[in-house]
Design a protein that fits this description.
This protein is of the alpha+beta class. It is about 40% helix and about 15% strand. Strands 1, 23, 24, 25, 26 and 27 form a six-stranded mixed sheet that branches. Strands 28, 29, 30, 31, 32 and 33 form a six-stranded antiparallel sheet that branches. Strands 3-4-7-8-9 form a five-stranded antiparallel sheet, with helices on one face. The N and C termini lie far apart (about 125 Å).
Amino acid sequence: MSFPPRRPSRPVLRRRRRGAALPTILILVGVVIAVMVGARITADVWWFDELGFLSTFTTKLWLQIVLFVVGGGLLAAAVAVSLTIGYRSRPVYAPVSTEQAGLDRYRESLEPLRRVVVIVLSVAAGLFGGSVAMSRWQTLLLWWNRVDFGTKDEQFQMDQGFYVFSLPWFTFLVSFLTAAVVLAGIGGLAAHYLYGGLRLSGGGDRTTRAARIHLASLAAAFLLLRAVGYWLDRYEVMTSSSGYVTGVVGPTYTDANAVLPAKAILALIAIVVALLFVAAAVGSSWRLPAIGTGLLVVSAIAIGGIYPWAVQKFQVTPNRQSLESDFVKKNIDATRDAYDLSDVEVSDYAANTTATQGQLSADAQTIPSVRLLDPAVVGEAFQQTQGQRGYYKFGDTLDVDRYATESGTQDAVVAARELNLAGLAPNQRTWVNEHTIYTHGYGVVVAQGNSRAPDGSPSYLEANVPTTGDLGLDQPRIYFGEGTTDYSVVGGKDNEIDYPDGSATGFATTQYDGSGGVAVGNLLQKLVYGLKFGDQNLLLSSSVTADSKILYDRTPRERVEKVAPWLTMDGDAYPSIVDGRVVWILDGYTTSSSFPYAAATELGDATTDALTQSQGSSVQALQDRTVNYVRNSVKATVDAYTGKVSLYEWDDTDPVLKAWMKAFPDAVKPLADVDESLMQHLRYPQDMFKVQREVLEKYHVTDPSSFLTGQDFWNVPADPTVEVPTGATRPKQPPYYLTLAMPDQQEPTFSLTTTYVPASNANTSGTQVLRGFVAVDSNAGAETGVKNAGYGKIRLLELPQSTTINGPVQIQNNINSDTAVADQVRLLTLGGGSTVKYGNLLTLPVGGGLLYVEPIYAQSTGDNSFPRLSRVVAVFGDTIAIDTTLDGALKKVFGGNAGATAGDAGTAPSTGATPTGTPTAGATGTPTGSPTGSPTTGDPATELQQALNTAKQAIQDSSAALAAGDFTKYGEAQQRLTAAVNDASAAQNRLEGGDGSSPSASPSSSAAPPDPTGTPTP
């Protein structure tokens, strides 16, 4: 028996065992990432639960997870399926050609890694798609909870809510699906080309049947989506600017009569071409879809571009006023509605420029409320007089509020005495000190806005440590504040430093017993927060006990933004005393960028001014993004002791807020929950007003023809008191809180004000004439749950173009060049021992004209010095006066009798009595002598030199006393300095006038006199 020869056995190939190192490393990395993410999510759950906003966090979290999974899965699946189809439908035998021969080596190299490549590309697409989809959770939530605005647009008769809530979501869906189809198409093209299903050269069919069906189907899907996109573009015209009319949003004549029909035609053509691709999928020729695609491209150029250009060029441009007026009118009306400017009350104001005696008699209630303290300047004074210790700090820019006193409600400058860990000595910067001992600030300092102490420092209504005053502050401790950015552990075994006192230890202690904070006593809690903050001391320190709590995310704005991420928060949180507690008050805005016809505004640009650009300022500009709808819909509070966040519905007519309240039903409390104590401290928000005033620069013009010419557009003036490098652009003047009565008001009310100058002259120094003055009623009310009827009323005074009223920049130039002002500035800077700071230049529509008031501060150059309110300048028309008090300056401006009293005469340094109604010598009057002043010799030159010597010595003594902490000697030295300045002023007046009769108020002169001390004259 014979057998066939056996086939030689194949050599046994042993598969190389993969090493365990790489999988182990990947697993460990995954575990670490999971633990870190889990720790952060767990900490957030505990944090939101403690504040009562857990449902807000979980709603957002689950929605983001769902969007990430769905969006990421869609893009990953699109790429993976397309690549897989391209591979599996490859021809059994690749066509023989030079092209395919060149691809063979790529196929061979890719084959061992093909699955890995597909997975990597799909995962990358999925991560991209998931992150994009996840970021649109607010868009989805608004669409899901949409409500009607109740008003329809004139073009499509669609409710405005469609554009705000639905259109953004539909547009995103179309663009996202288009991206999925495009990525799938790119993957399909690459796979078919690599494996021979698609050829660029050679005879016969260039594509296999499978490749043709696959690619044609994707092309058809893309074109159908493009058709939907063209159709939605018709609605997008309602919320965008086509550029045919500069600055106008919404359809213009060309848009309505050329662009909108073109979009509809292109959508129809795209559908037809998509059907041609479907036909190509079942047929065998690419000719018809190729022709259709060319037709679509030509149509897009001709119908979508050339035709609208021709209509604009040959029909609209020659007849611009008549054809565009109706469309511009829609833009004006919608823009004013979108920014809550529909009810602006406009009045012509023919301002008087001549000052006469008794002219302010009708404004006797307004003048005593003129705020003399500048919140942007007196921060140093607060720090030096009320800082107490280095570990306390006030903001550089303080806030303006109102408080009821025995003499009535007064404007006040307020600041919280917050914790400042940077003020600790280096040897005190230990973990225990920074996180368990020094945990909080102490007290709110409140100074009267319209007066000062005799030495020029603020006059306090509430101050000191422990706190004293009549404002009813029962819980002064500040655990949550603008400067508190690090976490603290409270309630453990360590006593916290409460405030400095006269005890043997030098300080009183306390332990936190508030409801705020998250428990951090057990091992799991310590581990979670140790991972969150990357701090092992939370696990190892014996200071962290079973009763400990951790306080973090402690700034008011941060806390509100975290519990209400759908709000845009105002850049200035301010502290108030409410029901005996320190409460931070913030304003929240609902915004949209899809309001039909409304002009867009860049929030960052609109809210940037001299305050936000100041280094260290606590006033911040809003995030730089574009919106065309804003409402101040929410008032928010943060308790400085417990950190409790409360949101109150402020605008119950806002549809955007209604949608968010549907999405988060328990987040916002009704207006009825705002008690009277809180209501008295609510005010009109600065950032809302900044946005509105920028919109009003153009949209105070309501006549379409005038709007098209642009001749009456305005600008907010530059702040003339800010020092900037030579050639640099000055920032905008900030709005100012003032209590005043507009010409149509019977009584003064707390208001927020600004001025306007012509846009054509906005950057021309010295020619910024005043064109408008705006005030908004900022008094929210004093009853529980009831807004003041006038709150939010905007009043605009338009000055006739036929008159010339100096604007802030011109007024400041005139002040700087006035001889009487220059004399006083010289006296304040005697021997270079002091510097001068100009405070905010306030504008008030009183006396039938416009009164400017500017405080001037003097600050010695010694250590621990601070700005002291030393002089006040008043300007009416061309008349300028300076005095130590506003009362004195007004008397000089109005011929010795202003007709109203500011009430600050008793708070300024004594300058000698001047009879009422009698013109005074120079800027401060003729002094009657001082017990600490220079002796009278009869020779004014000798008296002047003696006064200068005395002043220099007093300045040196003041600096030495401050350095030694001897405030008694400091006060004595300041009294001698004040008396010496007064004596020098009198001697200077006698030298210049011979008999002391130099005018008390003078028209602005062209230049300041030379300074004999060598100190530059402002």
